[in-house]
Design goal:
The protein has 276 residues and is an alpha/beta fold. The chain contains eight helices and twelve strands. Helix 2 runs parallel beside helix 3 and helix 6 packs across helix 7.
Length: 276
């Protein structure tokens, strides 16, 4: 894609800084919009598709970190957003270069963290790298969505045809069971339905409880193909997030899937996992 294909948003409460950043990016060929605060930025993001946002950390009202948290919350809580669509890549800008605020921004999904004033070269390099990574992620998510839809159709047909011939419930806790044939978790009178991919993931965990699975291994077992080291966490992250949200409806379920830093995930539930 060319620079003209990307749409960027510059968010800064300082008029001069905001104008200077927009000029630097426009001279490079990018389409650029601007916002003078976090509230306006959130509104514009809801109305337009931006590829990348340069977001000032310290602003009156809704500051950059709060805006970033809002975007992350929207991503994790929205079921209507297409899985192949990514939220904008975010680069934080700040004149207050504390390590704590940098870590917090990166923890909430920021791509990069630059101190003001940054040189045009630093800004353009960060933007270019962020857009390259975004393009790769979009291609990957689109490929995964196509594969998941094809597998869902095939597995849904098989499940509908043979569900009554399959047996073997997993007991998650005292009165909570998982039926792999129907892909349903039952807790008292509540039934939580899983997608085919979510069902595969939880079955992998339940078949080997307490085992730490690395990212690539989980993708291979759940999706059926191998990935590169950097691709696997991106493939798993939305799937793990969706399954965690469903498990959070169960007592203690929100903590059952534990992230193992730099490695992968473990289903860390101490109750009985044997087939009932």
């Amino acid at each position: 894609m060319t620079q003209e294909s990307y749409r960027l948003l510059v968010v800064d409460d300082e008029d001069i800084t905001r104008s200077s950043l927009a000029d630097i990016l426009r001279l490079e060929g990018y389409r650029v919009d601007t916002a003078g605060g976090g509230e306006l930025a959130i509104q514009m993001i809801s109305e337009h598709n931006f590829d990348l946002i340069l977001l000032d950390l310290k602003m009156p009202g809704l500051d950059g970190l709060e805006a970033l948290r809002h975007l992350t919350k929207v991503e994790s809580g929205s079921s209507s957003q297409p899985q192949s669509q990514l939220l904008p890549t975010v680069i934080m800008l700040t004149a207050h270069g504390s390590l704590e605020s940098a870590i917090e921004a990166l923890r909430h999904g920021a791509h990069d963290y630059l101190l003001k004033p940054s040189s045009p070269e630093q800004i353009l390099n960060s933007v270019s790298q962020g857009l390259r990574e975004r393009s790769s992620q979009i291609q990957l998510k689109s490929r995964l969505l196509q594969l998941e839809q094809a597998k869902s159709r095939a597995e849904g047909f098989t499940a509908d045809k043979h569900s009554h011939n399959l047996s073997g419930l997993y007991r998650l806790s005292g009165d909570t069971t998982y039926d792999p044939a129907r892909r349903e978790i039952k807790y008292k009178e509540e039934i939580i339905s899983l997608t085919p991919t979510e069902g595969k993931l939880i079955k992998v965990f339940l078949d080997q409880p307490g085992r730490v699975f690395n990212h690539r291994e989980l993708v291979l077992q759940v999706q059926g193909y191998d990935t590169k080291e950097w691709e696997a966490p991106e493939v798993l992250r939305p799937l793990i997030s969706r399954l965690r949200r469903k498990l959070s409806r169960l007592p203690g379920g929100i903590s059952w899937i534990t992230s193992v830093r730099g490695t992968g995930y473990v289903f860390d539930q101490t109750n009985n996992f044997n087939n009932s």
